[in-house]
């Protein structure tokens, strides 16, 4: 496998590098020599030479002055199943992920959310969904919705302490207003897609018949110049290399790399199918090829970090955004459930930290860690400050990961979704008068996990299900939920596969967890899930998905006049208590328990 096969070689060091400390001029000359070698010997020999000369890069880079703040690299894969990494027993080859994880710290009690938008919103705000109004589903392309603007984002906090902030890849946090775009939420640059999925080569997405558009952006504009049919995993990796090549490594950088892979549609360059012709299931075979390309891309990102002098002072965090989808080739075996569910297969993720700055390398962390924890952890590492009045749901877990100390986290609110389809047999009675078990919710407190309502598809899908033998081979693993069932309790430490429901055996623990759910729910904000806006159609925006919402001047003036009249009218009256704020086009969806 060529070293740079999935993304190409890194660009040479920029002209401004000549002013950097140390022997950067020599590095630039070395880069120029390598460019000549590319011309002389071709693409493959370039990659081979890069591997041989990597030690020279590191030696030169080590002579620079390192910033006290570490470089922060957060890599988010899309829809990677829990089993779909070599060190979890997968048949898919992931040598880069295996090596980085083995030399770092594997997170084996690590949780995310079951779908795209919720995980991304919690990572970038450090808050549960119930505290941002995004507790239901995802942000859809046609909805006038985005991550609430009153939330300080992770890149905004890092910029406050001198970081250069760059995002490459999938946004999926809303874009109906310009203020919602990544460059308005703290990123100096953005190159990627706004939606949740799309074609890997053409970068087009159809949300429904007649609602199709182009979805590739360079900062705030459609990136038509990059419409060259390049596979997105390769294209995003090339952009990361360019960013690193042009950045001064003595200045701290935050790179958020949110790959589209391995989300559907299942597409991959032909050469990555070579090792998987024995996989009969076509979706699994395509998925395996996509993951192999992703693994190679991360190898190339790591090489670029070393080549341009970032690696020794960097922290690389790798995470999937949710569990895999078996119907689209993903595997969460031996966990129960899949993407979109609150069973372990939907929310327990592949994750690890790789860094020369770790104190205990080559270890496994089994302490409780959640995706909201990255927000305070990274801000603390960056020597930043979190405002005293900011109510976060995440914890600083760096000492837990780096030194093996106990996690400050003892519970996780997986979610409370008051809009999701109610369980037919759920009731207040089933919840001991504490909680309506018709409501979809899930919570983890120490070893215990409680689910209520309709948790979603609940099968265990073993590896043989991807063969041509079909369901007959694994029918005994299928589960039909009892018609009277709306509450489950598991000891996840003892039973991580959720095979033994203990809700009837330990009613006292059930009640305690229901009370904790009720306490969390009292802090929830109204759900933000507005209806479709026809103005979102790309045909009205030059064929591009992008911001469409514009407040009419007349409406603005009318509201202003109305407010002024109301102010005059109530000037001499007793001031009344203001009503609770609610989202536009949405009724208050807080459950009062």
Summarize the structure.
This protein is an alpha/beta fold and about 600 residues long. It is built from eleven helices and 18 strands.
Question: Secondary-structure map with pairings?
Answer:
Layout: H1 24-61, E1 71-77, H2 95-103, E2 105-107, E3 110-111, H3 116-125, H4 154-160, E4 164-170, E5 189-193, E6 204-208, E7 211-214, E8 217-218, E9 221-222, H5 232-246, E10 253-258, H6 282-307, E11 314-320, H7 344-347, E12 351-354, E13 363-365, E14 369-370, H8 374-381, H9 398-403, E15 411-417, E16 440-445, E17 448-452, E18 487-491, H10 507-521, H11 553-569
Parallel strand pairs: 1-10, 1-11, 2-13, 3-14, 4-5, 4-10
Antiparallel strand pairs: 2-12, 5-8, 6-7, 8-9, 11-12, 15-16, 16-17, 17-18
Helix pairs in contact: 5-6
Written account of the structure:
With 593 residues, this protein is α/β, with parallel strands linked by helices. The chain has eleven helices and 18 strands. The strands form four sheets. The chain has a ten-stranded mixed beta sheet with strand order 9-8-5-4-10-1-11-12-2-13, sandwiched between helices. A four-stranded antiparallel beta sheet has the order 15-16-17-18, with helices on one face. Strand 6 (204-208) and strand 7 form a beta hairpin. The protein is globular, with a radius of gyration of 25 Å. The N and C termini lie far apart (57 Å).
